[in-house]
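Continued from yesterday's entry.
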Amino acid sequence: MSFDQLVWVFLKASLLSSGGLQSLPLLREDLVDSRAVLSDGDFATAVAIGRITPGPNGLFVLSIGYYAGGLAGVLAAVIGIMAPPLLAIGLVRAHRRLAGRPWVVGATRGITATAVGLLAAIGYAFTVPLLGHPASVAIVLISLVVLIRFKADPLPVLMGGGLAGLVLYALGVPLAEGR
């Protein structure tokens, strides 16, 4: 995939999402499903690496860029993801002035509901390959309960899941198809 195509993929993901993990379904659709630049496993690994690194929440985009195109992919990710927010500063100023208007409140709620749908879609896509493996399903369910019920910090939960996966792998327990 060429540099300009990678920039376009990340630019589109940035324009069509409102931050956080909301760009994941769009990036997965372009890089895994449509263009087959990455496998599901590579995509999931890139996201996991990006999520466990210290720093801003969106660092996973850089690791996806690296998996998709090496250092040029990282640069494409930086350009594509950072351009819209930098250009949106004017929109933020306008939103501050218009935030109380009913049409702005309605649009904001609609965008929020759509973001939840996007997150559910990526959660589903990540979960399907694990469903045939009880140990993976157990890790998913335990993580979900700990995150929702106890409002735990995601980093220790990710680390716990990684440790559980390492132990289960060492014991020969399958967690997913492929690598």
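--- second protein ---
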Amino acid sequence: MYSVEWPIWWMYDDGRRQQAGYKGGARDCVVRAIAIAAELPYETVYGTINEIAKFEKVRPGQNKSSARTGVHKATIKRYLTHLGWTWTPTMKIGSGCKVHLRRDELPEGRLIVSVSKHLVAVIDGVIHDTHDPSRNGTRCVYGFWSK
């Protein structure tokens, strides 16, 4: 199922979460986005994120990363760098929004895109997620990971 409203396209994709036997709600956008864009099994990404989290150093009162409830940026960076992905920032502090979650503002290819409090897979301009996070093409992109 595609949303064909310009300037975005969206396709429902849970990263094969349900197929892997996971049930119920979760704040697992990091696992979904990586599984989809990197073409890895959901359960592999889920397990790897939780393994990396065991070695995290966190501030007092801060939780360690969890594939189910949220992943710290440093953990995302460690995992994606290990997989050979490269970070491209699209926004700097105080610069304002330059790139939006729109197919005409992102490069082609398999991307893991960072927006406010969410990661989303974008493949050749098509958003792959469980919902359309684009806010009608107005959502600001902080940066993206690419292979």
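The helical segments are 29-37, 42-53, 73-82. The first strand starts at residue 2 and ends at 3. Will compare against the first tomorrow.
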